[in-house]
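Fold it.
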Amino acid sequence: MSRNAWALGLIAFACTVGGACGKGIVAGGGGGASSDPVVARMIAAEREACACTTLTCATAAERELSAWLEVHRDDVARAVAEPTREAQIDLHRGRADACRRALYDNASTTERAAAEPEDAADAAIALMGRLADKLCACSDMKCAQGVTKEMSSIEDPGGKPTEEQMDRARKIAVQIGECQAKQAQAEQHELARQLEELNATVAALAKEKDDIDQALAAATTQADRDRVAGRQAELRRKQAEAQKRIDMLRVRAGVQLGCPPGQPLC
């Protein structure tokens, strides 16, 4: 399997299942205690890893954290969907990773070999599962695009996966596809709502233009005509701005696939 084959294969399968993949589919810094259970666990992971003096110790701490993340994956998914909590999680997880990397860089070949995951395929599938949960917790396409980018960076674990591992990978791919399909549909409905509002704005501007034309016809002095000219310039600015927003919405809508039946934006 080539580099990123696992991640790209899962995403491709998800696209087939969900039909939603397209051109559009992407805190505090201290080390004290936290009332947030997920952040608190990350703080503990940082302390454990950075207290280690051997790679064996740091690897054990990392595996213990991975097991905790698997058990509490729903809580973690909700946490990373909130920017402030995600920033705290990334901060402490990053510090823990840095401490482990420092020990890895100074470890012997034997110690490094012992620190490798017992099963790289299981580790890759577990990571994809966590990212799938993170994707499904996204409330906008920008978030979804970011998670999809993370998925594409997963390293190929190498070797040939077992049938049981492939079955777990397929289930995760189905989850990804279903979530992407829901997010794409929600995006289309939001675009339609915004376009409807803009169309109403354009209609109101058209009426305002009629009023201005009448005012211009009734103007009897140069001062009156100058005032009307000022209103005309402002009206043209508003019309151009509204049209620009409409064009932008149509471009956004044009790159979304898997549109539900009857959607005029697709």
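The chain has ten helices and no strands.
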